[in-house]
UniProtKB/TrEMBL annotation:
It comes from Candidatus Paraluminiphilus aquimaris. It holds the Pfam family RseC_MucC. This is Fis family transcriptional regulator. Keywords: Membrane, Transmembrane, Transmembrane helix. The chain crosses the membrane at residues 109-128. The lineage of its organism: Bacteria, Pseudomonadati, Pseudomonadota, Gammaproteobacteria, Cellvibrionales. InterPro entries: RseC, SigmaE_reg_RseC_MucC.
């Protein structure tokens, strides 16, 4: 299942656009939304808006978009799951493994090994991302929802 979000185009590049989205679709469909403070905290810190880069797709190219157009972008649900497991599970797993390797030592060594494992895990992820080893996880342009009205200047040729 794809996750689809709509937003406003704020910048255009050759291979994609930057879209300002209002983070609402995930929170609106979540069963725990009434007991979760994530949406409230995100709204306080970022005004509930996010800036996302969406790449060209077969359905819509960046060249067809203008600033302030409303577009829909999507990301595959499996991509989101895989990315979350990689980004959180990798460093946590490495930290846990290093902490367990120090289990016979004092608590300070165990905690230190855990944080070293976390740091090494995040550094490895950064290295892998820089070399394109994590795959393409960017959202893609789906469709143009609404074209922005461009102001027109009328010039009187008699003046």
């Amino acid at each position: 299942m794809d996750i689809i979000e709509s937003g406003r185009v704020v910048a255009i590049e050759e291979s994609g656009v930057w879209v300002e989205t209002i983070r609402s679709s995930a929170c609106g469909s979540c069963a725990a939304r009434s007991g979760c403070g994530h949406r409230t905290l995100a709204g306080m810190l970022t005004g509930d808006k996010g800036l996302v880069r969406a790449r060209n797709s077969e359905r819509l190219q960046a060249a067809l978009c203008s600033i302030n157009d409303r577009v829909e972008i999507s990301i595959r649900g499996s991509t989101l799951t895989k990315s979350a497991l990689t980004l959180y599970g990798g460093p946590l797993g490495l930290g846990l493994a290093l902490a367990m390797s120090q289990a016979d030592r004092s608590d300070l060594y165990v905690a230190g090994a855990f944080f070293v494992g976390l740091a090494v895990g995040f550094i490895c992820l950064r290295w892998m991302d820089a070399r394109g080893l994590l795959g393409n996880t960017e959202p893609v342009l789906e469709r143009l929802v609404e074209t922005a009205v461009q102001p027109v200047m009328v010039v009187d040729p008699t003046q």
